[in-house]
Amino acid sequence: MTTVEPTPAAPTAWLLPDDVGELTDGLTQRQSRLWQLTSPGELAAWALAEPEPAPLDQGPPAFEGDWREGLDGSQQAAWALAGWVTRMTVPEAAATAGRHWLLSRIDQGGGSLLRLTVGVLETFGVLEHGAEVWFRVLAAPLDSALDAGALDEEEWERRGVELLRDGTKTLAEGKYLLRCPDIRTAQWLLRQPPVMAGARMLNGWVAAGPFPFASRYRPETAARAWLAAETLLDAEPQAASPIGGRGFDRPYAGSALPVELPAQRLFDAAAYRAGVIEHDRLCRALVDHLAASGIRVGAGLAGVNVDLAWRDTGGRQFIAEVKSVVGGNKVEQLRLGLGQVLEYRYRLAARGLLVTPVLLVSGNEDLTWRDICAGSGVTLLSGDTKARWTVDLEGAAVN
């Protein structure tokens, strides 16, 4: 099996502060059933986040037995990479299998090809014998990184990576086609933040579009690759020790309001933008509040996409779900936020991580909600009562 190299320490100065907002605005214009599972802002924040191990949630069903059966070492590595790329670069990959993407095994004269199709675009391919890997990425993050000197072009050339302008007409935006001579090089390349951002942005964009190939979906193929990816995820330094000594997966770099949206909803861009800004304001307020006590706060934990996560001075692990309230949706946001943070606590407990859950909202006049949250072991913080935060967090119970 191919060994895993550590994530390159590529600088991130290439990422502009308004990139998440710009990507959100673009996705907001698209009407898609994908917004039943995520939101444009949440997808944009995920696409531009630091690469991290994909969640170890239940994947597509319909595969029984040992995924390695009948595969030699090179083939196993190819299947593992195909599953890893799917889980790392396709938004909400488990829930959208067969509806927004498919993985195909295609017999060719020189061997079999594993190919990922997202929406109407083929975005990744690897020959089973491992002699070639290719994938498409959106050009903007790479161009920005190259201009900022955040990518080492000489190292790419030394490793045999080809960076080619992609000529497919599926999207108006510029794309690159990246070719790697082997699986190990592809793994190294995909761990560079600008490359991962380009892959996620492209897959997110096309996943929100039409998907005409549902009849070609073979769940057993997707499930086999999904299981194979565990061999790479298990080898990830973060997966073996998911939270290290920090209490979070990655630094907080701006977030977005996660809202469940009905299919084909027409967006109020101004209201959505206000929600995104308020969500980020709340996150930064809590980050700054804890920083005053010397506590570092980040985002994500063990692959679970929590808004904020940290360890207090006593070593207790906290997670927080943040819900902005900018209109008449206070009760809906409280209900949604409580459900989300309880889900995250459960998923983390299943991975052996005991956490203290917190729900932070813009404001709350109904004091009954403090008791409702406390009854589930959740501490409720309100943006209009910051003076209480220290006391409330010190009194938070671990469940």
Give a quick account of the main beta sheet: strands, pairing sense, barrel closure: 6 strands, antiparallel
Query: What integer value in Å does the Rg equal?
Result: 21 Å
Strand content: 15-25%
- The overall pLDDT average reads 81
Poorly predicted spans: 1-12, 236-244, 255-267
Characterize the quaternary organization of these chains.
Answer: single chain
Beta-strand segment tally: 12
* Class from helix and strand fractions: alpha+beta
Number of domains: 2
Characterize the overall form: globular
* Spatial arrangement of strands, main beta sheet: 1-2-3-4-6-5
Count, helices: 15
Structural features:
399 residues, alpha+beta, Trna Endonuclease, Chain: A, domain 1, six-stranded mixed beta sheet, 15 helices, 12 strands, 16% strand
